[in-house]
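Case study 2.
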Amino acid sequence: MNEQQRQLIEPINAWQDAMLKHTLQACNINSGSYNREGIADVITYFDQLFADICDQQQRITLPPLQSINNQGDVLEQHTAEVALYHIRPEAPIQILCTGHTDTVFSKESAFQTCWQEGDRLRGPGVADMKGGLVVLYHALKAIHQSPFAEQLGFTILLSPDEEIGSPRSAEHLVHWAKKCDIGMVYEPSLEDGTLAGARKGSGNFDVVVQGKATHAGRDFFGGRNAIVAAANISQQLAALSNKETGITVNIGRIDGGGPVNVVPDNAVIRFNVRIEQPEQQQPILEAIQAVIQNTAAQNAVTAELHGRFGRPPKPMDAKHQALFEQLKHCGELMGIPIGWRSTGGCCEGNNLAAAGLPTIDTLGVRGGAIHSEDEFMCIDSFVERAQLSALLMSRMPDFLKPKA
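Prediction:
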């Protein structure tokens, strides 16, 4: 490590207590994906935190989110805003840093507050990913105070809907991905520091099934049972899963029905599809449509598919491999082994990579048990991960320099 790099990361050693404080404050604000007011409060908190290093701050209003209720009706729900920060937008190298302000824990969840448990911080969003946003701020603060600053510009995009697949923020992720040189996403790494490499693509879907209601005793055979049809469709959809190709179709829930003496005329199937390669998307969509149409016809009901693929696959191609090697070198400078592995999970990094932006997407804190009430982050990873990010940022001018 040269002297400039040492001077870059040295101040971060003294910032752990501040990082812990900021994470506690942010995570004690509930910001479940559908808690618009709570997300707005979290954005306000990060507005204030980032204010001292940003040249511009703005909010972007998103269109209403469409959802299917248990009766199959299409509803619209207002979403929270995107927070967008710009630092040195005229600098020769532009880095897009993204994260999300929502969590999977609703206002009704029992998991609402944070506490320290030895060397771990426990609580909603400590790892996924408010702790990561705090790491990002402190890495940028270190760059801001260094000689590297003049070459590096940053766009920081905080989305409010990542945990539900970024249905409304995705277009903004793609827009800024096309304007930048490198993407850095602050999802958590694993507890041992392993990062996500290749990621599967993902889509969330609903099938609205409409049958015919009749009295189960007086006219059973005159009815068309939507629940039975939904079960048949679900079995056929699940059978599209293929271990060899990596395609999975997970039936997560079936809603519908009512009193047991009525043939149910309504059901909604909710399912998730994961794919490994972009070219798998269209064939699996066609197979899904064929299952729905054929099985609906066999059961004399109607069925309509809603939803889409919101996360394209993120393969570990040559440009991503080269970027990860840069991060590995930064780890070597710090005496930290850096490894990565493929995962079926998805994040905003999928969207950035699909837009053509080389992206590393698990630069946040080390942690685990995310999406559960056992969620935790490793407190000693605050300094480590902020230093790692700062070093990676500092290497981008050389990394992106045209090869002779």
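The first strand starts at residue 56 and ends at 60.
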